[in-house]
Specification:
With 413 residues, the chain is α/β, with parallel strands linked by helices. Helices cover 41% and strands 18% of the residues. The chain has three domains: 7-149, Globin-like (Orthogonal Bundle), CATH 1.10.490.10; 158-254, Translation factors (Elongation Factor Tu (Ef-tu), domain 3, Beta Barrel), CATH 2.40.30.10; 271-412, Nucleotide-binding domain of ferredoxin-NADP reductase (FNR) module (Rossmann fold), CATH 3.40.50.80.
């Protein structure tokens, strides 16, 4: 454990909360601007959260503010620390990278706050940064060590070869990946993701995370990727490249499985898996795992998509639950088209609602796992909490500022 923060530092950090509320996003944007002047450091990060979507500066601003508000109660941040550590492992962040972030953050505080960033304030934030950095470095070291020690495990980047490609819908494809070295793979926790590093012509080094969409096994991984944008339009650089160019024999560099959103396999309590769109990927991994090892566990899989053109893995999912009364599937189409037949292709028209979930699933005992776009999650997390489902039984994953989503739901509940 790092040396505890001094009372003086804690008081100074607490005193900066109003400034962070007013200028936190400006500070983090400035920090990343400084940080990314170094191409080597820039390439460590997933740039889709910066240039293409801009979500990461906002997420970091919220994390810094939460750190300042809870500087005297850091136990409240344990979940956030674990999420950050898992993301860092997927990006292969190492201890030697932390000083670059410290320099950029402290300089950004000075740039934005000007004379208000006194020597005492900067020294306090330097101490607070390194306290948190040492916590993260220690946790990441443990994760790296554990990953390398497990059968099929590794650290850093490993070459995975595309073994096969399967169309799942008009906009989604699955890629089965096996190690280029012929060895086994690390068995992931159902719901985790792989981090990828690609060097694409005209784009340079890009990093992305894709959820693993199959049950744990020793031989392969499957990722299921939506084409996020059309060629020539902003966004979707990597997903378009995978759809257009990745085929059998393509080599992808991957970090080992990571992420703190995964199925709790230590209990047989009821579980409700809820997904929207391509958010089905971790849910299919969980459902496959339950179907293979825990078919007596009461399980509901509720999926929402636009229509049959976007409905991925329909036949595969139905095959997993066929003939089993303990495993139930319900599919919602928001805008079914003329070819979609109620009762055959889908079960309900419209959107998944918290009212439906509470009425049709055992909300008093089940744990809910949710994955999908922010509006989908915000409505369901908020709605379930309002209807009495405890926050600890609502677990969710989406690619954005998770803490912000949960804060919004708690405020509305």
């Amino acid at each position: 454990m790092p040396t505890p923060l001094s009372p003086e530092t804690i008081a100074l950090i607490k005193a900066t909360v109003p400034a962070l509320e007013a200028h936190g996003l400006e500070i983090t944007r400035r920090m990343y601007e400084r940080l990314f002047r170094n191409a080597e450091i820039r390439d460590l990060f997933n740039q889709s959260h910066h240039g293409e979507s801009g979500s990461q500066p906002k997420a970091l601003a919220q994390a810094v503010l939460a750190y300042a508000r809870n500087i005297d109660n850091l136990g409240a941040l344990s979940g956030a620390v674990e999420r950050i550590a898992q993301k860092h492992v997927a990006l292969n962040i190492l201890p030697e990278h932390y000083p670059y972030v410290a320099d950029a953050l402290l300089a950004a505080i000075g740039d934005v706050l000007g004379d208000a960033a006194t020597a005492e304030i900067c020294a306090a934030w330097g101490e607070a940064y390194w306290f948190l950095a040492e916590l993260l470095i220690g946790r990441e070291a443990t994760i790296y060590r554990d990953l390398a020690a497990k059968p099929g495990g590794w650290n850093g980047w490993r070459d995975l070869v595309v073994e096969s490609v399967s169309p799942e819908s008009d906009v989604i494809r699955s890629f089965v990946l096996v190690p280029a070295d012929g060895g086994p793979v690390l068995r992931h926790e159902p719901g985790q993701y792989l981090g990828f590093m690609l060097d694409l012509p005209g784009h340079g080094v890009l990093k992305r995370n894709y959820s693993i969409s199959c049950a744990p096994n020793d031989r392969s991984y499957r990722i299921t990727v939506k084409r996020e944008a059309h060629p020539g339009q902003p966004g979707g650089t990597v997903s378009n490249w995978l759809h257009d160019h990745a085929g059998p024999g393509t080599v992808l560099r991957a970090a080992p499985p990571a992420g703190d959103f995964f199925l709790d396999r230590s209990t047989d309590a009821p579980v409700v898996l809820v997904s929207g769109g391509v958010g089905l990927t971790p849910m299919v991994s969980m459902l496959e795992s339950i179907a293979a090892t825990s078919r007596d566990r009461p399980t509901w899989y509720v999926h929402g998509t636009l229509n049959g053109h976007t409905h991925a893995m329909r036949d595969h999912v139905r095959g997993l639950v066929a003939g089993d009364e303990m495993l139930k599937v319900q599919t919602f189409y928001a805008q079914p088209d003329a070819q979609d037949r109620l009762g055959e292709h889908y079960d309900d028209a419209g959107l998944i609602t918290p009212e439906w979930l509470v009425a049709q699933t055992p909300h008093a005992a089940a744990t809910y796992y949710l994955c999908g776009p922010k509006p989908f999650l915000s409505a369901l997390v908020n709605g379930l909490m309002r209807r009495g489902v405890p926050a600890e039984r609502i677990r969710f994953e989406f690619f954005g500022p998770t803490d912000e989503l949960l804060d919004e739901a708690r405020q509305a509940a």
